[in-house]
Amino acid sequence: MKKGLLVVFGLLCMAAGIIGMFLPVVPTVPFLLLALWAFARGSERLHDWLLHHPRLGRRLRDWHEHQAIPARAKLLSVGSMGVAALWLGFFSGIPAWAVALALAIMAYGAWFVLSRPTL
């Protein structure tokens, strides 16, 4: 992939991550991690800027150096998945197969989050 496209992809992911800081249904850190990955391959300057950003960089450095997730983030992540699972199961009215698929994806996400080291 060309460096210019990687930079554009990284900027779009960074924008989505920043939006996620204000909208509870949009994840922040996964988009910022994608941006960091894209910048590492497309722009060393943007990669270093994001990794050392005073507001955004700490969580990214934690992941980059230790693949670790803070306890508060784990609690919020798994808790919000639990609330979403309850809503899907009892109030959504969507087909059972779709609920089962969503629950399976959430279960994998919860397992992944909980299996990472805690800082």
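the 2nd protein, sequnce then structure:
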Amino acid sequence: MQCDSFLEHQRQRQSHQGKNNAQTLFGVFKIPNTPQICNILGKILAQQLFVVFT
């Protein structure tokens, strides 16, 4: 990728192509910004994510 972050890459795809992978693959129509993601993830305990990465 040419971008520093997944979200920035999705924003660029949206502006150039009118669609992005977040929308196409995951059904995310409004891409969140970094503070929004931090607010959401900040409420999750790290131990809760361990099962995802077994």
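The chain has a mean pLDDT of 84. The helical segments are 6-17, 21-26, 34-41, 46-49.
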